[in-house]
Amino acid sequence: MTIVRPVHNESDLHQIDAMSISELRPEFQTQLNIVKECILSKDAQVKSLHGKELNGLMYAGLIRSYVDAINQGGVPTISSAWEDISSKQCRVRVYIVRNCLVGFTHRIIL
Fold first, then answer.
1. What percent of the chain has pLDDT over 70?
2. What does the pLDDT look like over 20-40, one tens digit per residue?
3. How far apart are CA 93 and CA 88, in angstroms?
4. DSSP code, position 28
5. Rg for the chain, CA atoms, rounded
6. Domain boundaries, given as residue ranges, for the chain
């Protein structure tokens, strides 16, 4: 799905985070509502990659990887995006486990 630019003026685009939805182009508002309906519909399919269902953080990381590749003039690749997502998920899990173990050992020592 292609979406029109939210504003016509380039300087407005740089300040878009300070604008309300009502200040954006009507065509953009309509398309944004369609996207939101698709995302929130009960018929939305869970995104999966290499047979693994993606959670919200993983999906956001996948999108970020694609956007970064495009913005750098490259072509997004699924394999490198997947490696990046997997690596980040591993680091999150290690952080969680480490914090649990630290808390557990403090309770044993005390």
1. 95
2. 999 999 999 999 999 888 878
3. 9
4. H
5. 20
6. 1-44, 46-110
